[in-house]
Amino acid sequence: xxxxxxxxxxxxxxxxxxxxxxxxxxxxxxxxxxxxxxxxxxxxxxxxxxxxxxxxxxxxxxxxxxxxxxxxxxxxxxxxxxxxxxxxxxxxxxxxxxxxxxxxxxxxxxxxxxxxxxxxxxxxxxxxxxxxxxxxxxxxxxxxxxxxxxxxxxxxxxxxxxxxxxxxxxxxxxxxxxxxxxxxxxxxxxxxxxxxxxxxxxxxxxxxxxxxxxxxxxxxxxxxxxxxxxxxxxxxxxxxxxxxxxxxxxxxxxxxxxxxxxxxxxxxxxxxxxxxxxxxxxxxxxxxxxxxxxxxxxxxxxxxxxxxxxxxxxxxxxxxxxxxxxxxxxxxxxxxxxxxxxxxxxxxxxxxxxxxxxxxxxxxxxxxxxxxx
Length: 373
Prior knowledge:
Blueprint: E1 10-15, E2 28-29, E3 34-35, E4 38-45, E5 61-75, H1 82-89, E6 90-93, E7 98-102, E8 110-117, E9 123-141, E10 147-154, E11 156-158, E12 161-169, E13 173-175, E14 190-191, E15 201-206, E16 209-212, E17 219-227, E18 248-252, E19 255-256, E20 261-267, E21 270-273, E22 282-286, E23 291-299, H2 304-311, E24 314-322, E25 327-336, E26 349-356, H3 362-365, E27 366-371
Antiparallel strand pairs: 1-2, 1-8, 3-5, 4-5, 5-10, 6-7, 7-27, 8-9, 9-10, 9-11, 9-20, 12-13, 12-17, 13-16, 14-17, 15-16, 18-19, 18-24, 20-23, 21-22, 23-26, 24-25, 25-26, 25-27
C-alpha cells in the first residue's frame, strides 16, 4: 500500500508504435515537478423548449467531446531525455550524442501514465494515449535547477478497474454483473483469461454487457477482467541528477554573454482533428509552421543587443547546460525582438526576447544536441 498523499504520485512515458495505441511495457519514469494531465468532457445541452418546463430534463443533454492533456513540468535531468526530445523536435540523428532538429512529427507519439494516490493508499492510474508534445520550454534561472516544461495534447485517457465475475462465451460478447460498463469504456483495453491480446471494448449494451473487438478464445465464468491499463511499477534510473544554473553558459554572436535567466521554447502548431461520430480525436497533426521563441534576462551591459533589435540583425545563440559529462546544447539563429532597457533604481536589467529564424535549412533555426548517460 502506498502513501495516501501526493508523495506517491508517479509519471512515466514510453514511445508508441501507432499513435493512439497504448504501449504498456518499458516505461521511463522521471520525477514530476509541476502540473499534471487532465481529462475533460464537453456536455451537449439542448436549447429546445418544452412547453411549460422551467428546467431542462435528463433527456436534454448528452456526453460530448473528450479532451485530454495538459502541462507537465520536469527538472532537466542528465538521463532519460531521448524520446522526449524526439517528440519535441521531430528529427533525430546520431547514436549518442543525439542531435535534434525541426522535423515531421506525424507518426510520433507517447503513452503517458500518471498515478495519483487515493485516501485508501491505492495509486490510481490514468493512461493517456496518442500524446503529442504541442509546446515545450527549456529554462534556467540563476540559483535554480534547469527545467523542462511540456504541454501535452492526448488522443484519449483511461482509468482502470478490475472485476472478478466476468463471463466469456467464445464470442465478442462479455458480461459482468459488477462491471458497470458505461460510455467511457468504449475504446478501453480489456484483458483477462481468454481475452485476445490488444482487445478493446468496441461497444457497451448495458451496465452488465459489452462487446469486445475480438472474440474470446474460451467459454468461462468467474473470469477476472482488467478494464483499462494497470498501474506500471515506477522505477527510476540510478544516478538521475538534475542539471542546474552552475552548469549553464551562454554565448551570443560567438561571444560569452552573462544572463540572469534564459528560456527557449517551441510550438509545434498541432491541430486537434475532430469528426462526426467520435468523441475523441484522430492523431493531432501540424497545421502551422513550428515557432521557436525565448527570452534572455541580463544586466544592461551596452547597446549591442538593442542595436540588433532596431537594425533587425540576426545572431547566433548557444545555450549550453553541461555538468562535464552530460549536456544539453541548444544552438539557434535568432532575431532580437526588443526592447529598450527600462529606467529603475539599482543595476538596470534588460529583457532580450528573441525568435529563431532559419538562415538556411530548418536545422539552422534551432538544433539541440543531447549527450546524456
